[in-house]
Structure to design on (307 residues):
């Protein structure tokens, strides 16, 4: 195992199982809510977020605080990056200030491949354009593992469908890789403009209708239409049409007999891919995913940084 978590493949299956087990331990510590375990008390972690974030940034911050690390929120818009300094130079300078790890979210794809050979501190990918979001995938796997009695064998019997903008989703790509590693059967569905041309590379299959997805799936993962990255009309006629044909509501799933589970990495567009009644219903694991993010991310930080 290296010092970075840039891609799912930076951890072996055994590493990931160890991280999930540690996340479970951390979640069930019988300690006060804001306990500082002091496990990373001599570590400096810098946060560099070039794109907005609520869940990832706050849960990594909370995870670092649980472990007792010192955190620094690097204000990207007020830094010397705006005076022409490159990201590599910035990180090298922050290393001189004592950085042990960088948690980075970037809009562009490919920075990490360049940075990893130049930077000694740990690099943690907190979302990379449309390409990778590995910590989200790990917390989603944890949430399913928890939901199915912490039994990886039960996960192998599941059918999971990801619906929405698969092509431009960093979450979907990381999830498909991770689920494949754990031998979990996946399907994808959405407007054909959003589907992968090479689903077999991700060990997944394309479904033909929402009804098919609802009938065969134990778990459905909905994705957000990333309006900030795209002109949605290039992909489907209107948000209303999207909601009608690809969105889920309590009304659409209430006739499904089995206990289908609905996940979403967040943030969700209410009334587009999901309606709020469903998001806040007992079918939804959405807020469990958010809560689990803290413990999974703490386990990732501990694994990378604890000596
Ligand atoms: N799921 C996710 O990455 O959410 P944020 O953009 O709020 O971090």
């Amino acid at each position: 195992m290296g010092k970075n978590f840039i891609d799912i493949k930076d951890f072996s299956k055994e590493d990931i199982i160890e991280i999930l087990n540690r996340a479970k331990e951390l979640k069930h510590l019988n300690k006060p809510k804001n306990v500082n375990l002091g496990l990373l008390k001599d570590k400096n972690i810098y946060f560099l977020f070039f794109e907005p974030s609520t869940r990832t940034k706050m849960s990594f911050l909370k995870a670092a605080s649980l472990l007792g690390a010192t955190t620094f929120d690097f204000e990207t818009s007020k830094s010397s990056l705006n005076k022409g300094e490159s990201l590599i130079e910035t990180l090298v300078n922050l290393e001189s200030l004592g950085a042990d790890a960088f948690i980075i979210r970037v809009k562009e794809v490919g920075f990490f491949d360049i940075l990893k050979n130049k930077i000694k501190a740990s690099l943690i990918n907190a979302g990379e354009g449309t390409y990778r979001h590995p910590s989200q995938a790990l917390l989603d796997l944890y949430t399913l593992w928890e939901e199915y009695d912490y039994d990886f064998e039960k996960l192998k019997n599941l059918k999971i469908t990801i619906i929405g903008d698969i092509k431009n989703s960093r979450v979907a790509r990381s999830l498909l890789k991770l689920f494949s590693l754990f031998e979990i059967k996946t399907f994808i569905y959405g407007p054909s403009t959003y589907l992968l041309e090479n689903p077999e590379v991700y060990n997944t299959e394309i479904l033909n209708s929402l009804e098919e997805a609802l009938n065969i799936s134990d778990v459905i993962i909905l994705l957000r239409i990333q309006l900030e990255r795209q002109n949605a009309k290039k992909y489907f006629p209107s948000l209303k049409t999207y909601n009608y044909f690809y969105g889920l509501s309590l009304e659409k799933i209430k006739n499904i007999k089995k206990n289908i589970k609905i996940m979403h990495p967040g943030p969700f567009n209410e009334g587009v891919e999901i309606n709020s009644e469903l998001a806040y219903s007992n079918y939804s694991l959405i807020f469990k995913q958010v809560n689990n993010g803290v413990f999974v991310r703490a386990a990732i930080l501990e694994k990378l940084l604890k000596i």
Q: What stands out?
A: The mean pLDDT is 95. Residues 53-57, 127, 136, 265-267 surround phosphoric acid mono(formamide)ester (CB under 6 Å). The first strand starts at residue 44 and ends at 49. The chain has two domains: 8-133+292-305, 135-289.
